[in-house]
């Protein structure tokens, strides 16, 4: 009789733990798919269910979802103080006994969020909202000061040189000239609000390079997208622009540098590495965030 009761209890506990792990797996899955509102709602339900009190994962995903949703202007206006609350919640998770393990287990999500917030901060600064910019910057420093950058797909100089000779030889002289000029700034450091070779932000770099061809662009990446001639991916050529978004407006822009038939490369000002050439197609980060393509040529 006692054995039967014990076995029944063990089976019940196993089934309960399986259901809980399944709930956590769904949070991770929906977050990776960009369904941040769904993650927020599901995490809230778990936080209100005592069976899940043993884990800080619901708090982790609720905070992460809020920090992604806040990048949408409409959401931010409705709950403009939630970014500070979410940052505090995520900080408590980080300081909890399991905090280090959780941050390590979800390192890609953490790095991606840090990069998204950096792009958002850049756009906010260009809008002239210094208070909001400082608030976002404080969150980045408080939560992600020791978090590395999103890994770039390594691009070897020799590989790029060979592909340039093979795939860029038939583009117009203007496009070749523009790309050669852009390449001169490889390694230039990133700087919020930067528009000169002493330091560029993403749209500042694109605007500076385009100006070499007497083409004047708006200052912000969103405005650069809005005023560009929109292109489908199959029509894109080196020298055109690629725009990225994290769910709100456009927050990053790069110049398409090379298309080798399988992969698209861009040259852009990265928050972590400054001006660099990066492969888009095989990057889990960039591919998911492509907003569209545009041209001024």
Overview of this structure, please?
The protein is of the alpha+beta class and 297 residues long. The protein has 2 domains: 2-105; 157-295, endopeptidase fold (from Nostoc punctiforme) (Alpha-Beta Complex), CATH 3.90.1720.10. Helix content is 55%, strand content 14%. It is built from 13 helices and 8 strands. It has helices spanning 2-32, 36-47, 57-69, 73-78, 82-95, 99-105, 107-126, 130-144, 157-167, 173-183, 202-211, 221-227, 284-289; strands at 195-196, 199-200, 229-231, 241-245, 250-259, 264-270, 274-279, 290-295. It has a 6-stranded antiparallel beta sheet with strand order 3-8-4-5-6-7. A two-stranded antiparallel ribbon has the order 1-2. A hairpin with a 2-residue loop joins strand 1 (195-196) and strand 2. Helix 5 runs parallel beside helix 8 (130-144). The protein is elongated and about 65 Å long.
What descriptors fit this protein?
297 residues; alpha+beta; endopeptidase fold (from Nostoc punctiforme); 2 domains; 13 helices; 55% helix; elongated; disordered N terminus
